[in-house]
Each structure stands twice: as structure tokens, then as C-alpha cells.
Amino acid sequence: MMDGLSAAPALSPLVALVGNPNCGKTALFNVLTGSRQKVANYAGVTVERKEGTFVGAGGRRIRILDLPGAYSLDPLTPDEQVTADVLMGRTALKDRPDFVVCVTDATNLRQNLRLVLSLKRLGLPMVIALNMSDIAKRKGINIDAARLSKELQVPVVETVGVKPSGVKDLMRLLDELPAPAVRGPAAAAAGPVRTEADIERDQARVRNILRLVGADRIEGVTFSDRIDAIVLHPVAGPLILAVTLFLVFQAVFAWAQLPMDAIKLGVNALSNAIAGMLPQSLFKSLLLDGVLAGIGSVLVFLPQIIILFFFILVLEESGYLPRAAFMLDRIMGSVGLSGRSFIPLLSSFACAIPGIMATRTIQNPRDRLTTIMIAPLMTCSARLPVYALIIGAFIPNREVWGALRLQGLVLFVLYLLSVVSAMAVAYVLKRVRRGSPPQPLMLELPAYHWPNLRSLAIGLWQRVEIFLTRVGTIILALMVILWALSSFPAPPAGATGPAIQYSVAGHIGAWLAVLFAPIGFNWQISIALVPGLAAREVAVGALGTVYALSATGNDVAGALTPLIAHSWSLPTALSLLAWYVFAPQCLSTLATVKRETNSWRYPLIMAGYLFGLAYLGSFITYRIALSLTG
Amino acid sequence: MVMGTILMYSQAMAAVLKPWVDTGSLPGVSLADLEPGAIARVVHIATAQDGASAELALRLAELGFLPGEQVRIVARGFLSRGPLAVRVGTGTFALRRFEAAAIRVAPEPSLHG
């Protein structure tokens, strides 16, 4: 348009958000882009990207890249490496930012301004966002923004990243950015390696600037200090941590009951309605027994997954999670890990995939590898459906010790067991590589603040989306395949047993049942474990399909619980619970490990050792339960 | 590429792993010995010249542990030899004991007695 040579529309600028960890950068990104975000796909490259679109007043679209938090441009973690690579133009052309928004925590400029100075040396056009400026003002820190801008020769805008009205100035500035003529400036040269003396020189400059802009006062005892006096107290702290985690798991079961019942009722009603409308046919069987039964029995656990993620996000946003890591560092250290491994491992309680990806913040490669290897031992939410089904069917829901429920307690024990086994595996790995000296921790404990509702909602939605996508794609496909395996070939004329026994799935189940007989699994469980390879929760849907098809009546969803309570023995149920503590089968996790370690070695070792542990754990559980129940 | 990166970090970390320093000859006192609540000022970070790890010193510097900065112990872990929560300037970091021991400080009169 501008020149006759190019008919392409003007390029839209790419803006990179850069800042120290905990500077409120992600909240700012969320308020700028709203729901117009694209989180890096797990199937993509190793670099985890968060890109969003900001729509200006005139409908102009600007791409915004939320770079991982970094303390410096001399990377020490893979996360920082990504940030440095993007800023120095060492990535794909479409990822070269035209403009940088350096997000700073206005209450912590003493730390944040060093990164500003480093960024300035790169020579990219930039603006400084004085984020959390409301908190700074409340604390009596009145930063002379004009003076700061003059000292650094960079525009400065105040922002309050947690509300739309707090980013008006920044939005106006972004909206007025010129369209880049060509994509990406020339790669910035990486400067010589920085030494402590260079950093000291920068800090001297920072002190000087702080004095000039009136932000050099250091608060005595802060609000966060007063909370920490209790939360990090040697006695009260660990108690608070234990109670918090316990309450989270109780809530996952108690609060989810109502919406779960609603989903069950809805699926039943839908299934009945369809049953009444369609004539008896193969298609009807596929729809009811394959699709609805399978999807329904997985979807029903969405409320629990949402509640668990909600608590993890709240704890993370408020600043409590790093404190938990601090308190657990000593215990983690005794098995050769550091407190840093806590956050990836806690994320793994929701799903091992984001957990394994979060290990990129662990500096030490061995610590990182150990954390990756034990991450799948954490009870991911995909195992909840299996636990919930078996606990619901076999554990009476009575109260123990007053307010606690036995079902919740059993769930807690299962979680505890997964943590203990993970620690044991980590300890073994530590012994294997013995002689390794202590590793650094260096974990920031950010000031406490109220979780931001917008960030919570966006974070929750992104996770729900991943789950629903899985239900709608891989799980649905497997359900249909399993239905076909379970329906064909049809039973011979005059057959007496349930139809599925004569099908392909029935035969596979019969073979596997031989392998799993010593640990008490029947052929129905054995069949269900096969599609469970793709995603653990599929096993529940598969059980639903297997039993719906082998049952004579037309019960589809929801009938699974009384069915298995009736047809499994208690030792079998406990054995399956034990199996799922280790649950080796999750192809997506293994694929993630392959990508993160860039080798087949570790996913293969992982699959092998998890399978061994699962078989051993189930065998012991089954044999002990058998001898106890006679 | 990932393994290359890991290799790079293992080399970097190998430097951190060097046996710890004789701290007797360094200026100031160890940050790890500071009482909770007491205010001090950083006077020195043990460097390669002190027989410490260059990597550790650099990393501490990147976080803001630099001579002249004010530090304070916010909390100690509940187990012996556990990590320390350290305020430096306006930020707070959890450091393991050996990391804190690399930071030499001069105690200052406390504001709160």
C-alpha cells in the first residue's frame, strides 16, 4: 500500500512484555488482551509462548508477547534464556519484537531498574510501565515519573495491572505505535559477559535514580512481614500449610458434589431423550453406549478439576506458594531436591504436563531431571475420576472424627501416598548420583496480595479449555474406537454371555487379564486400561462403555458406581487404587518428557519404572487385602 | 538443543558445586549468622578470588545482593539447617544457608531495638 511493491497490509507491531518475575506482568497482559490469548500448545516447540491481541480504540490489532519473567538478560534458567533470545532477535522472524514494554513493580524499583538498564542497552524502542502504582502510592512511595523518564530517556507510564482503567495510558501509547516497515529489527548484539562489577555499577546508578525520583526509602516492617511472622513461623507455618492442603482436598470432594450430580442428571436425561427418539440400530448404540456414556463419565469430573485448579491458582496468585516451597525446602533437600521443585510438583497435581513444563524454572539440570521423573507420581486430576469412582463405590461416606468424611480422608491418604512414593523415588535417584553438593535455592518471596479475579478467571478458563479439548478430541475418538472394538464382531447366534465377551476388546481383555490376574484385575478392568494409555481418565469412560455394553439393561451413565460395587471385590478395588497411585499410562506425559529432555531415554525409563512400581504396589495391596478380608 | 542447554547449565553449576570457602578471612560477618529482624548492610560477596563459586556470586548479584544494600532476615525455616528468608532492599528471597554464607554483612543499629 505504502509502496507499490508490496500489496500486503501494513504489519501489525509486535510488543513484548518484559519484567522481573512477580512484577504483575501477567495481570497486565491479561487486562490488555482479555480473552484474546493463545497459550503455547504442548505439541509445539520447546519455547512456551503466551501471545495475545490488543485491540486499540480504532479497532487496530497489536500482537502482545508475554515473555517469561527474568532477573537479567544473562540467562541462568531456560526461562530466562527464552526471554533473552527473543529480545536479542535470536528467534524466528515473527517473534522479533518491535517494541518493548518493560514492566516494573513500583514498590520494588530498587530490584527492577537493573533490568531496565540492561534492556535500554539493547536499543529496542521501549516504554517503562510503573506497575502496581496504586500499591506504591498507598505505601507512601511517590515516584516522580517525569523525572524517571528524563533520567532514563525512556517514556514512563503508570499502570495498575489489575483493572482496565489502570492501563489507559499504556493502551493509548500502544495504539499510537507506528506500523513497522519490516518485520523485526536487526538482532541486537549480545554484550560481553557481565561481571559483579558491572552489576554493582548498574546498582549505583539505580540508587542515584531512586534518590532523584523520591523512591529510595526502604520500608521497615511491611504488611507482608506481619503475615510472614505467622505464615513462616517455625511451628504455626507448617501447621497452616498442612491444614491448607488438607482443606483444599476436602473442598474438591465436598463442593463438587452438586454440579457433578447435575451433570450426571443432564447426561441421563439426554440419553433417555435420544433413546426414545431413535429406533434400535447400530448408530443408536454408538451414540448412547459409545459417545454419551464415555464422554459423560469423564465430563462429570470437570467440577473437581476446576476446584483444584482454582485453589492452586489462588495460592499462586496470592504469593503463598513460594512460601510453601520455602518451608518445604529442607524436606525436599533431604531427598536431593529443592523447594523450587515444589511448584512444578504441585502443578502436577492438576496435570503432569504443565508441571513438567514448569520445571524449566529449575536451574540445576539434575534437579530438573529428578523433578520431571517424579512429576507423574503426583496425583494428577485425570486420576481423580478413577479414584472418585472407586472411592464412591467402595468407601462408605460416613463421618470420622467429627467433621471429616471418610471418603475425603481416603483421597487424602492416596495423595499422601503419591507424595511419599515420589520422595522415595527422588531419594533413590539422589543415591544413584551421590556426592552431589548442595544446590542453590534463590527463590523470590513476593509481597502478598489479593488474587486478581480476571487473572483467576483467565487461568481457570485456559485449563478448562485444555480439559474440554481433550474430552472432545482424543477422549471422544478413543471412546468410539473402544465402542467399535467392544461391538465387533457381534456374538454368534445363540450366545449366552454378554455381547462384549465375543468382541475384539473381550479377547484383548482376556489376554491382559492373565497378566493382571495376580493383582486382582478382572477382564473389564484389563480392557479399560488399554484406552487409558492415551489419557488416564479414559479408563473410567471405558469402564462405562464396557459395563454398559455387557449389562443387559439400557443403563448408560451414572450406573457405573453400583455396578462395580456389586461386581468387584474390595481387594480388587484397592488394588486398582494402588495401580493408579503410580499409573504409568499417559502417552501425553511421556511425549512431553520426550520433548523437554530431547531424548527417548527418559520417557522410556519413566514408563518402565512406573509400570514396575504400579504392578508391585497393586500386587502387595491385593495380597494384603485378600489375606485380611479372608 | 535442550540437552545442549542442560549441558551449559551443568557446566555453570559445576562451578557452584565447588567445596565451600574458608570464610574466616573475609570482611564482615556471614548473613547466615544474622538474628531475625536485625538490619545489616552487605559489605562483600564471596567471589572466585575468595575460593567461592563465580556463578553463585554472579547469581546473587543479579538478584540484588550487592555491597551497600540493606539486608534483614525475615524468617528462618522450621528445621535446623533450613533456608532463610532474606530481605534485600525492597525484595525478599529464600536462600539456603550456604548461599547466605557467601554474603558478608556489617550489622547496623536496629530501628526497632
> What is the typical, i.e. mean, pLDDT of chain A?
82
Structural class of chain B: alpha+beta
> What pair of chains forms the biggest interface?
A-B, 67 and 54 residues
Strand adjacency order, main sheet of chain A: 2-3-4-1-5-6-7
Looking at CATH, the homologous superfamily of chain B is Ferrous iron transport protein A (FeoA)
CATH fold annotation of chain B: SH3 type barrels
Give the total of beta strands of chain B.
6
Uncertain regions of chain A: pLDDT < 50 for 5+ in a row?
Answer: 1-8, 41-47, 552-557
Which of globular, elongated, flat, extended, rod-shaped describes the shape of chain B?
globular
How many helix segments of chain A? Answer: 26
How would you name the oligomeric state of the polypeptide chains in this document?
heterodimer
Specify Rg of chain B, calculated over alpha carbons.
15 Å
Discrete helix count of chain B:
3
Assign the CATH class of the domain at 14-213 in chain A.
Alpha Beta
Mind describing the biggest β-sheet of chain B?
6 strands, antiparallel
Secondary-structure arrangement, i.e. CATH architecture of chain B: Roll
What is the mean predicted local confidence, pLDDT of chain B? 78
Please name the CATH topology of the domain at 14-213 in chain A: Rossmann fold
CATH C-level label of chain B: Mainly Beta
User: What is the CATH architecture descriptor of the domain at 14-213 in chain A?
Assistant: 3-Layer(aba) Sandwich
Low-confidence stretches of chain B: 14-21
Provide structural commentary.
The complex is a heterodimer of chains A (630) and B (113). With 630 residues, chain A is of the alpha/beta class. Chain A has a domain of 200 residues: P-loop containing nucleotide triphosphate hydrolases (Rossmann fold), CATH 3.40.50.300. In chain A, 58% of the residues lie in helices and 7% in strands. Chain A contains 26 helices and ten strands. In chain A, the strands form two sheets. A seven-stranded mixed β-sheet of chain A has the order 2-3-4-1-5-6-7, with helices on both faces. The longest helix of chain A has 35 residues. The N and C termini of chain A lie far apart (84 Å). The relative contact order of chain A is 0.09. Chain B has 113 residues and is α+β, with helices and mostly antiparallel strands. Chain B has one domain: SH3 type barrels (Roll). Helices cover 27% and strands 27% of the residues of chain B. Chain B contains three helices and six strands; from the N terminus they run αββαβββαβ. In chain B, β3 and β4 form a beta hairpin. About 7% of the residues of chain B have low confidence. Chains A and B meet through α3, α7, α8, α13 and α16 of A and α1, α2, β3, β4 and β5 of B.
